[in-house]
Design goal:
It is a single chain. This protein is mainly beta. It contains two helices and 26 strands. It has a seven-stranded antiparallel β-sheet with strand order 1-22-19-24-17-14-13, with no helix packed on it. Strands 2-3-4-11-6-9-12 form a seven-stranded antiparallel β-sheet. It is globular, with a radius of gyration of 18 Å. About 40% of the residues are buried. Bound molecules: manganese (II) ion (MN). The site of manganese (II) ion (MN) has 5 residues, from β5 and β10. Manganese (II) ion (MN) binds next to β5 and β10.
């Protein structure tokens, strides 16, 4: 049975995160639907935008996180990262940075120096992936996943490929290690491509069209729109008339209470207060601006 489409969302009005990310927040959104896409708590979508050349590296300065993972997927431009657990890296087109904040890190995220100096197209997604209560206070972890490391599924007719970031696509395994079951794919399709796959009925599922447009389960979806599926049916069929790039997210919901405040995502208000106390006590480590 075809997976039923609940709605096709147009990109909400953008806002700046720091001075380096111009994002459309698809969820949780103004109505705070915090569990609708669980385990994916938040999606900030930096649709493709040109940044002018700058000696200053635009971005977001040092800030803490606890209780979840920040996952940054790059499609154009380069983003750099440093955190108080001692991890750092640069990701570019097709790469993913999967940072598990868990018990807590300070980090900063900004345009890579050479990209900033030259300027150009910048196109990214940042997800906040929730952690189950039992893993919220695990040690931090950092996975730099280049597109070469991702599992690859090639369409039999040669009209595109799937980069498997996490989970699996048919028999092809993803590169990321995750705490709860999920599938994350980048689809790179040529014009007149057709691809079919299945995702579990109870997994919360969304597909973002990053470039071009696509027909998804019979519905025409424009660039920068998010297709949100109801938890009914398993089959997805995508067809293109133009070249298209899509991000597929599908995950088993985490059935636990959520209290979200600022950069923290916990189960109770007391844990949020504890997070602020721990940051103020220096327990998240040290990171220079
Ligand atoms: Mn952050």
């Amino acid at each position: 049975m075809k997976k039923q489409i609940e709605k096709i969302m147009s990109p909400p009005a953008p806002h700046m995160v720091g001075d380096g990310f111009r994002v459309h927040n698809f969820f949780p959104g103004p109505h705070g639907e915090m569990t609708r896409m669980s385990p994916f708590f938040m999606m900030d979508y930096n649709s493709k935008v040109e940044f002018p050349a700058s000696e200053h590296q635009r971005g977001v300065g040092v800030h803490p996180h606890r209780g979840f993972e920040t996952v940054t997927l790059a499609y154009a431009g380069k983003v750099a990262h440093h955190d108080s657990a001692g991890n750092s890296g640069v990701i570019g087109e097709g790469d993913v940075q999967w940072m598990t904040a868990a018990s807590g890190v300070l980090h900063k995220e900004y345009h890579e120096k050479e990209f900033a100096r030259v300027g150009g197209a910048f196109h990214m997604v940042q997800l906040w992936v929730n952690l189950p209560a039992k893993n919220k206070m695990d040690p931090p972890r950092y996975q730099a996943i280049t597109r070469e490391q991702m599992g690859k599924y090639f369409l039999p007719d040669g009209k595109g490929r799937v980069d498997v970031v996490a989970g699996h696509f048919k028999e092809i395994k993803g590169a990321a290690s995750t705490f709860t079951p999920m599938h994350v794919y980048n689809l790179y399709l040529d014009a007149n491509a057709k691809i079919d796959f299945e995702l579990p009925e109870h997994y919360n599922t969304g597909i973002l069209v990053l470039e071009g447009n696509a027909t998804i389960n019979g519905e025409w979806v424009n660039q920068d729109h998010l297709t949100l599926f109801a938890n009914v049916g398993t089959e997805i069929a995508i067809e293109t008339t133009t070249a298209a790039k899509l991000l597929v997210l599908s995950g088993e919901p985490i059935q636990e209470p959520i209290v979200a405040y600022g950069p923290f995502l916990m189960n109770t208000k007391a844990e949020i207060i504890q997070a602020y106390d721990d940051v103020n006590a220096g327990k998240f480590g040290v990171l220079e601006d």
